[in-house]
Structure formats: structure tokens, C-alpha cells
Amino acid sequence: MKPTLLVLAAGMGSRYGGLKQLDPVGPSGEIIIDYSVFDALRAGFGKIVFLIRRDIEGEFKRFVEGRYGDGVEIGYAYQGVDDLPAGFSVPEGRSKPWGTGHAVLCSRDEISGAFAVINADDFYGRSGFQSLGERLMAMPEDSTEHFLVGFELLKTLSENGSVSRGVCEIDADARLLRVSECTKIERRGGQVVNLAEGERFAEFAGNELVSMNMWGFEPSVFDEFEKRFNEFLEDNSGNPKSEFYIPTAVDGMIQDGVASVEVLHSGDQWFGVTYREDKPVVEAGIRRLVDAGVYPEKLF
């Protein structure tokens, strides 16, 4: 069975301004999502599911539907602040959904087998999709083996401000031991450092593998995420800013010994539009890849 690609597109991008997921960056008006879909389809994925908010549904669907041709199966899932398990309610002051782990749970009804998860506003390159497609199609659906594509830290930085990255700790067999969230990584005086208050100061060599939220999961992950989301709500539902992240859930699964995660090393250059000033860099990077023959001038 071909795996599904889940694209997390619910965020508006407050630091960027506007619905950045639909901002053209390719030579023929392509958006970043288009390159992810193109790479996923040629890596063997069979369905694309977009996780969005209800308030952007009309604009998003008008833009996407029919964009990839009649032969591509498209699904939609929705994430809202009130999408909660029985027994829980939205606390006063809470205005946004509950994070990327919650987003995965909200997509459950649209996914019937193995799947990959990516961000809508990240350009990942071909190799990660190829590796995930091969691994996911080879695994049985009841497997507790999952996957994370790791990118080299230096290839994921922005010249226009700090970034948040999950730094991977990996054993000799490329198994993920943990992901440590560093929320303010930037170049400072020729060094790459984490400057977030309340977090461990860290100086990086630059070749560390970091998570860019490109995961491969077997469907067994849904039950684990559901269990851990309930536990999260019991402890954090009163905090209007708390979020249930994918790395948090996966780390708990690893520490409890109920899952194993293989880290797949991608040497591709990541591009992203964390800040509006990043857009020309993304456009230039994609232009180079098109000129090199990695992508056609017009994707679809």
C-alpha cells in the first residue's frame, strides 16, 4: 500500500505575515508545497492530506484543488482549538490549537496506513521523501518502527533571525535517543549558538542532525499519540500557551520502550520562509535546482 503524505498547513506564520503557504517561490508560480507534493509522488506516495484550519478552508481549497492533476488523491483534515477528547474543554484564554502532535491526531480519519508528516512552509529536497517512501512501503502496518529525516544544522539556518530546531541525539545504529528542542539558534560572531532564555546554552559544530518535522510513521502511532495527548491535557490544559509537539510524543514513546525511530540522514539543503526576508533566498535556491535539472521549469 502506498503511504500518505500529511502536510501540516494550519499555521498562518505570525513572524512572516499572511498565508505564507500560498506564496509563490518557483519560476512558474509554484509554492513550496508543490515541490513537496512533486517529490512525494515520484517517491511512491499515493495520497496527499492537507491539515488546515476551518477559517482558511475556502482560500486553501480554491488554490489547491485541481492543481496536481486528476490522478492525485487529495484529502483534508482540520485542526481547531476545540478538537479535544471527551472530558476536556477549551480553557479560558486559549485561542490556538494544541501543536503538531495534536495536528497528527486530527488527521487520523483521513489516513489508513503508513504516512509521512511535513510542514507546509519547509522545502525538504528529494532525498528525504525517497528514503521515507522506501522505508514506509517496506514495513508492516503493525510495526512500532518509525522514521525521522535529519538535516545538517548549518543547512537549516536563516540569515534573517534565530530559528527553533530539534537537535537529535543518535546511537551508533542511527536510532534516535532523544530530540532536544533549542528555540533560539543563530549565528553569533562566527559561531552557531542557542541563546534561548531558560534553555541550556549550546555551541554547535554545525554538522549536528536536527529535526525539521519530517517524520515517517506507521499507523500504530495514533494510539500512542492519543494516550499521550490525554496525559498532556491533564497536566497542561490550563496553560493557554502549552503545545503538544510531535517530538515530545515521540520522545516519550522512545523512553517508554514502545517505539524505535531510525534517523535518515538527508544531505539536501533545507529552505524555509520563517521570515519574509527569507523568500528571495528560497527563490534563488529553487532556481539553482531547476537550472541543474533537479526539477522541471513547471512542476504540474
What are the main properties of this structure?
300 residues; alpha/beta; Spore Coat Polysaccharide Biosynthesis Protein SpsA, Chain A; eleven-stranded mixed beta sheet; two-stranded antiparallel sheet; 7 helices; 26% helix
What is the compact description of this entry?
The chain has 300 residues and is α/β, with parallel strands linked by helices. The chain contains 7 helices and 13 strands.
Note the topology.
Layout: E1 4-8, H1 32-42, E2 47-52, H2 57-64, E3 73-78, H3 100-106, E4 115-119, E5 122-123, H4 126-138, E6 145-152, E7 163-170, E8 176-188, E9 191-194, E10 202-204, E11 209-217, H5 221-236, H6 246-255, E12 260-266, E13 271-272, H7 279-291
Helix pairs in contact: 1-4, 3-5, 3-6, 5-6
How would you characterize the overall build of this protein?
With 300 residues, the protein is α/β, with parallel strands linked by helices. The protein has one domain (4-291): Spore Coat Polysaccharide Biosynthesis Protein SpsA, Chain A. 26% of the residues lie in helices and 26% in strands. It is built from seven helices and 13 strands. The strands form two sheets. Strands 1, 2, 3, 4, 6, 7, 8, 9, 10, 11 and 12 form an eleven-stranded mixed β-sheet that branches. Strands 5-13 form a two-stranded antiparallel ribbon. Helix 2 links the parallel strand 2 and strand 3 (73-78). Helix 3 (100-106) crosses helix 5 (221-236), helix 3 packs across helix 6 (246-255) and helix 5 (221-236) packs across helix 6. The two termini are 24 Å apart. 39% of the residues are buried. The model is unreliable at 12-17 (pLDDT under 50).
